[in-house]
Inverse folding.
C-alpha cells in the first residue's frame, strides 16, 4: 500500500518522524527542498498540503518563506534608505524618529511573517496606554503600514498585517478665524519688520515656514508678486530649507499697499538677492517657537485678541478668499494641489452667510433674480454667472 502511495506522489516527499507524525518537503522554484511549516497526523494530510503548495507554485503565488523571516528592524532600515531620496528632509526625520522610538522598540525583533492584525492592534493599544497622542499613534501606524506594504510588494509576505486595525480618533479642532480688521490690528501691533511677516500670513496665506524662507529675490515689486518656492522647517533641532509642503510652488499677487511697504523695507535690507527677509537679531534664520514667543504672541495680545496661532491667520485668509472668490482660488493661494484640503482644513462658513442664502432663496422661490451677497465659487472662477450657479 505504501509503495502505491509513493508511486502516485510526483511532487515533494513525505517521511514519518519519530513522534509518529509526518513531515512534508517540497521543491521550490529554485529547486531547493523545503519543509512544510507544520507536521501532519497522516500521509493523506501531508499529500493534500503538497498538492496545494504545487498549485501555489505553478500559479506564481509562491513566496520564499525565508524572506518572511526577515526581522522588521532590518526591513524598516532598508525601506527608509530606499524611500528617503524622494522625501522632504522633515518627512525623513519624522519617519526615522517614529521607527526608532515607536515602531522598532516593540516590533523590531519580530519576523515579518509573524506579524498579524492582532499584533498591530496590541501595539496600537500599548501606545495609547503609554499616553501617546492620537496624532502620534496615527503617524506611527501609517509608517508601519508603508513598511509592511513594501514587504508585500517585494514578495516577502502574502498580505500586510495593517488591516482592520481601529485607530484613535483625532480630536476635532476648529481654527480660530479672525476678521480682516482683527488681522489688521495684529499687524499694526507687531514690532517691525515682523509686522510685514504677519501681514504675509494673513493677507497672502503663507505658511510660517514659507514666510521665514522668503528672500529679496522672491519679491517682485514692479509686478506686485511674491514667489513662494522655499520653506524653512526644523527637523530634530536642525533648520532645513526645502520646497514648500506638497512641493507646491506658487506665484501670488499681493495687496498694493503691502507691496509698497515691502519695497520700502527692501531698501533697508542688507545683502544680495539671496538675503532672507526676516532673521533673528543676529542675522540667523528664524525658529518658530522663538519667533512666536518674541513677536507674534505679544502682537496678538496688544491687538486685544487671545487664543490665536500664526496658522489661524492662514486659515482665516483661506476662509475670506473662499467666501468671496471661490474655493479654487483659495486653494491656489494656500498652495493646495487639491481643493478638498482647503475646504476640509481651512475654509470655514462666514457668519451671516446663511441669512443671506435664506434671503436670496426667497427671491428665487418667488421667481425673482437676487444679485446681492458674495459671488459663488463657480462665478469667481469662470468670470460670469450661470443659471446653474445663481449668485448667493
Amino acid at each position: 500500500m505504501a509503495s502505491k502511495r509513493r508511486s502516485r506522489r510526483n511532487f515533494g516527499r513525505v517521511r514519518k518522524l519519530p513522534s509518529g507524525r509526518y513531515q512534508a518537503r517540497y521543491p521550490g522554484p529554485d529547486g531547493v527542498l523545503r519543509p512544510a511549516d507544520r507536521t501532519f497526523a497522516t500521509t493523506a494530510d501531508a499529500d493534500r498540503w503538497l498538492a496545494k503548495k504545487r498549485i501555489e507554485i505553478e500559479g506564481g503565488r509562491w513566496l520564499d518563506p525565508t524572506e518572511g523571516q526577515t526581522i522588521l528592524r532590518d526591513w524598516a532600515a532598508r525601506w527608509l534608505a530606499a524611500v528617503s531620496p524622494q522625501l522632504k528632509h522633515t518627512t525623513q526625520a519624522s519617519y526615522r524618529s517614529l521607527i526608532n522610538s515607536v515602531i522598532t522598540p516593540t516590533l523590531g525583533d519580530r519576523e515579518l511573517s509573524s506579524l498579524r492584525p492582532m499584533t498591530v492592534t496590541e501595539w496600537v493599544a500599548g501606545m495609547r496606554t503609554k499616553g501617546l497622542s492620537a496624532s502620534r499613534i496615527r503617524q506611527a501606524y501609517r509608517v508601519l503600514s508603508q513598511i509592511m506594504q513594501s514587504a508585500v510588494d517585494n514578495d516577502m509576505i502574502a498580505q500586510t498585517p495593517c488591516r482592520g486595525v481601529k485607530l484613535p480618533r483625532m480630536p476635532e479642532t476648529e481654527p480660530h478665524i479672525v476678521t480682516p480688521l482683527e488681522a489688521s490690528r495684529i499687524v499694526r501691533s507687531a514690532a517691525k519688520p515682523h509686522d510685514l511677516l504677519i501681514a504675509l500670513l494673513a493677507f497672502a496665506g503663507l505658511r510660517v515656514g514659507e514666510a521665514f524662507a522668503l528672500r529679496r529675490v522672491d519679491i517682485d515689486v514692479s509686478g506686485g508678486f511674491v514667489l513662494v518656492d522655499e520653506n524653512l522647517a526644523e527637523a530634530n533641532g536642525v533648520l532645513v530649507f526645502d520646497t514648500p509642503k506638497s512641493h507646491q510652488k506658487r506665484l501670488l499677487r499681493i495687496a498694493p499697499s503691502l507691496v509698497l511697504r515691502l519695497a520700502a523695507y527692501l531698501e533697508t535690507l542688507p545683502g544680495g538677492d539671496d538675503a532672507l527677509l526676516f532673521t533673528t537679531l543676529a542675522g540667523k534664520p528664524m525658529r518658530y517657537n522663538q519667533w512666536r514667543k518674541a513677536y507674534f504672541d505679544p502682537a496678538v495680545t496688544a491687538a486685544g485678541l487671545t487664543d490665536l496661532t500664526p496658522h489661524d491667520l492662514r486659515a482665516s485668509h483661506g476662509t475670506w478668499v473662499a467666501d468671496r472668490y471661490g474655493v479654487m482660488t483659495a486653494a491656489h493661494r494656500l498652495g493646495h494641489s487639491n481643493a478638498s484640503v482647503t475646504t476640509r482644513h481651512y475654509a470655514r462658513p462666514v457668519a451671516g452667510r446663511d441669512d443671506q442664502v435664506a434671503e436670496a432663496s426667497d427671491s428665487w422661490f418667488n421667481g425673482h433674480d437676487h444679485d446681492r451677497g458674495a459671488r459663488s465659487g463657480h462665478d469667481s472662477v469662470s468670470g460670469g454667472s450661470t443659471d446653474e450657479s445663481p449668485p448667493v
Summary: Residues 134-153 form the longest helix (20 residues). The two ends are 88 Å apart (CA to CA). The chain has a mean pLDDT of 83.
